[in-house]
Write the structure tokens for this entry.
Amino acid sequence: MTAAIRQVTIVGRVQGVGYRAWVEHRARARGLEGWVRNRRDGRVEALFAGPAEVVSEMIASCRRGPSSARVEAVQEEGASPEALKLRRAGERFSVLPTE
């Protein structure tokens, strides 16, 4: 399997509904590396790294989100391994502070 690193931005009612915790749980269950954080403008941003097929499945899940969220759009783009350095030391997947 080919490795992939994708950065996504989720737009809609995605803050205050448990979206970050949902992403963290789903990403860890899939064995992905990366991080998730709220943005001050109301969006959620995440980085997923792992087998391309698993990363694609995770992004597809983000388009639905938890039942209390209302996802309007998911924007995705490639990212470099440098972006993984934002994780907390020793963690495969981190919930980062709002930026």
